[in-house]
# Entry
Amino acid sequence: MRTLPIFIILLGIITINSCSKDPETDSDDQTKMFTDNDVLEEIRNNTLFFYQGDTATLSAAGNSPHGTFKLLFNQTALDALGADGKLAAGDTFPTGSLVVKDVIRNGNTSFYAAMWKQPSAENANEDWLWYEAFLDGSLLVSIDAKGNGCIGCHRANTNRDFVNSFDLH
Ligand code: HEC
# Structure
């Protein structure tokens, strides 16, 4: 009967092991993977709302490299804005907020520049996914670049959660 205690100990080890693999306690499960296509679909499949309800094309301001554009928000982002259509200084956007710049060339949208707030995304930087692509999804800047080439400028507006337009337009 000397095998019985050993069996019980083994059973205990197996139980402890399987408990420690509980997904809720596994920190790896806190990060999510998003793809460039996820961003494209988010842009395409959402109702987007114009900045301050104005459909006019805006001219690039400040040090903007983006050219003329229209600025749009999904419902989640819109809900965070005040009556003046701006994010209050010091405030932050909630997870899922999407800010899209339709960059206009010759009267039409030429490409999208987008910020999608996904703090738990592995490829997020400063809690945002940073993306630029033509309308068919051909990439200018992948989210896997983690905002390299974007954040340098957008950091000027940390008090508005990295969104520049509220102080310029
Ligand atoms: C040289 C500075 C600079 C760089 C680099 C830059 N941006 Fe911007 N961005 C701006 C400015 C300034 C605005 C404000 C609107 C305007 O007048 O263009 C802006 C606006 C935006 C907006 C609309 C929301 C907002 O902040 O007003 C998005 C989305 C955006 N940029 C995405 C990107 C992405 C993605 C990249 C990198 C691929 C990037 N930007 C690189 C300066 C920059």
